[in-house]
């Protein structure tokens, strides 16, 4: 596995809303260039929108070769049980 990013310090602070109600999250991003910061912002936005969509409608279709990967795993398992 190849590491994409390296950092010297990572800080995560979690504040829980114990009383329920509406939840708000603040994400602070830092990038060495505006281009990297834009990419990070877009990635977080995509993730949030995906989560919102999944909360509204949980039906999904596997993508990014997920079907092929699962078939390959099952074929390998099946092949180990067969002789000849």
From TrEMBL:
InterPro entries tied to this protein: Chaperone_TCP-1, Cpn60/GroEL/TCP-1, GroEL-like_apical_dom_sf, GROEL-like_equatorial_sf, TCP-1-like_intermed_sf
Nucleotide-binding in keyword set: yes
Record GO terms (molecular function): ATP binding; ATP-dependent protein folding chaperone
Chaperone keyword on record: yes
Pfam families to which the protein is assigned, alphabetical: Cpn60_TCP1 (PF00118)
Keywords for the protein's UniProt record, in alphabetical order: ATP-binding, Chaperone, Nucleotide-binding
SUPFAM superfamilies registered for this protein in UniProt: GroEL-intermediate domain like
Family of this protein: Belongs to the TCP-1 chaperonin family.
Protein name, entry field: Uncharacterized protein
Species assigned in the record: Aegilops tauschii subsp. strangulata
């Amino acid at each position: 596995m190849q590491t994409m990013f390296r950092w010297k310090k990572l800080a995560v602070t979690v504040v829980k809303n114990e009383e329920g109600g509406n939840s708000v999250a603040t994400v602070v991003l830092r990038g060495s260039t505006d281009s990297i910061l834009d990419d990070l912002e877009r990635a977080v936005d995509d993730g949030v929108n995906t989560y919102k969509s999944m909360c509204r409608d949980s039906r999904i279709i596997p993508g990014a070769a997920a079907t092929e990967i699962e078939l390959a795993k099952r074929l390998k398992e099946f092949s180990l049980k067969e002789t000849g």
